[in-house]
Amino acid sequence: MLTRLTGQIKTGDAVKTEIRQRLDSQIEQLIGRLNELLLRAEIEVRKTSKKAVVVIVDNLDRITFKDLGGGRTSHDALFIEHGEQLCALHCHTVYTVPISMMYGLSARTLCSIFPAYHVLPMIKSREPRVKGGGDSPEGMNRLRGILGHRIEIDSLCEEDAVTDLCRACGGHPRDLMTLVRHSIEDADENQAKPITRAAVERAEARLVAAFSRMIPETYFEKLVAVYRTNKIKKDADHQAMLFSQSVLEYANGIEPWHDVHPAVQKLDSFTEVLKNERAKLTAES
User: What is the pLDDT of residue 234?
Assistant: First the structure.
């Protein structure tokens, strides 16, 4: 049944809409059955001296952003309009929510629906530019530690290549592992250690290319402003930047701060706008 349902969902928007309408009318019954299942699971779990059942629903932060009209988005439809249903399961639940929702008009409503929320920032690989910039020793060591739990660094990596990986990911663990995977795929077979600085450079170029295809030209002036100030504005464009992770959030103080992803900083459109901004500031001074 699930295979058939999945196939139908993939056939087109009309079928998706019909399935959603049918499920919406039976959502309370579905949640009731799920809670019966969770109750049985809770009983069995406690028999093994465990404390409780925890359900983790990952990757919801990657749900496609769609403007549904009337000020509604696909993110609002799931987390705001169906928030009570998401909280109705009789167990501990963890949902991953797009960080961009924390900067919209629906942020307070979202926080009231999910009061025990936690914002997961990036690891601070660099200090804020407004405070001098430069590598953050603590953050770089933390990223190296994450890498060391996944691969044998001494066997696979040149020392300088590890530093390059930690800088290139911007403190984003997922991008760190993506860069490692691409570095191995692009490795030179003649090298004693596959992850060299040249391999990391080629891997980073793939990440740069991915960002080049998604960022509208109209965003680059705003991206340069984020780069210079380590701050974002609470508007739709900056929400989109957070959602696409072209802008990353860090939380090493009372207020969070932001920076442009290192891969975006290497785009020609970004460097050109930055160069023009610096020339303008020099002329004015």
Answer: 86
> Euclidean distance between the first and final Cα of the chain, in Å?
70
pTM attached to this predicted model: 0.81
Which among 224, 241, 219 has a CA at the least distance from the CA of 281? Answer: 224
Q: How far apart are CA 40 and CA 91, in angstroms?
A: 11
The three-state secondary structure class of 25 is: coil
Overall residue count recorded for the chain in this entry = 285
Angle of CA points 63, 67, 72, to nearest 5°: 95
Query: Mind listing the pLDDT tens digit for each residue in 176-207?
Result: 999 999 999 888 777 788 899 999 999 999 99
What is the distance between the alpha carbons of residues 119 and 101, in angstroms, rounded to a whole number? 11
Instruction: Judge contact between 119 and 258, C-beta under 8 A.
Output: no
| Pairwise CA distance, residues 202 & 73, whole Å | 36
**Dist. CA 17–CA 222, nearest whole Å:** 36
Are the C-beta atoms of residues 95 and 83 closer than 8 Å to each other?
no
Angle between helix 13-24 and helix 2-9 axes, rounded to 10 deg: 130
pLDDT > 70 fraction of the chain, expressed in percent and rounded: 93
Identify whether the C-beta of residue 98 lies closer than 8 Å to the C-beta of residue 244: no
Extract the tokens encoding 206: 């793939």
Question: What torsion, rounded to 10 degrees, do the Cα atoms 195, 196, 202, 205 define?
Answer: 90
Measured between alpha carbons, how far is residue 110 from residues 78, 80, 238 in Å? 11, 6, 18
Residue 209 has what pLDDT? 96
Residue 170 near residue 261 (C-beta atoms within 8 A): yes
Model confidence pLDDT, tens digit, residues 88-103: 999 999 999 998 898 8
